[in-house]
Amino acid sequence: MWSKLSSAEGDATSCARVERWVEVSTLDDLWEGDLAEVQLDGEAVLLVHLEGGGIRAYQGVCPHQEQSLADGDLDGDVLTCPGHRWEFDARHGRGINPEGCVLFSYPVRVVEERILLGVPPAGTSRYYHFTATLEAL
Ligand code: FES
What is the pLDDT of residues 23-57, one digit of tens each? Predict the structure, then answer.
């Protein structure tokens, strides 16, 4: 049983400041209900087109053991990692199972069908990793 999850980078889920905006895809290439991985400054980023609309962008690898989240499943608003089936709410990146984990979130803009991501200032960690400890026996 998971008893404790911790983040080395704190509780924030998204960078508050943006250094610049970069086009990474278009709505033609990311249909509603789709997941895709793109690269931004050498980092893998997961794009999510929510069913019903809305684009989200998160760290591209799972905070558990770094499986590619783009290889996972999107069922409604639930994103499931292909590795060990951790589940995240695709609307905001927070963990559903287990609770207490979160994905780093990039600011997103859609301008005339183009998907732009906000690049955090240099030195900003764009990846949350969680460690779990087993309850003491
Ligand atoms: S790598 Fe994602 S749940 Fe383990």
Answer: 999 999 999 999 999 999 999 999 999 999 999 99
Atom nearest to 81 CA in ligand 1: 2
For the chain, the structural domain boundaries read: 27-124
Tell me the CATH architecture of domain 27-124: 3-layer Sandwich (2.102)
Q: List, for residues 55-73, the tens digit of each pLDDT value.
A: 999 999 999 999 999 999 9
Mutating to test ligand 1, I would choose from 35, 81, 88, 127 the residue with most ligand atoms within 8 A of its C-beta, which is 81
112 class by beta-carbon count within 10 Å (0-12 exposed, 13-18 middle, 19+ buried): exposed
Probe residue for ligand 1, chosen from 35, 61, 62 as the CB with the greatest number of ligand atoms within 8 Å:
62
pTM for the model stands at 0.86
Indicate if ligand 1 lies below 6 Å from the C-beta of 88.
no
Q: State which ligand 1 atom lies nearest to the alpha carbon of 63.
A: 2
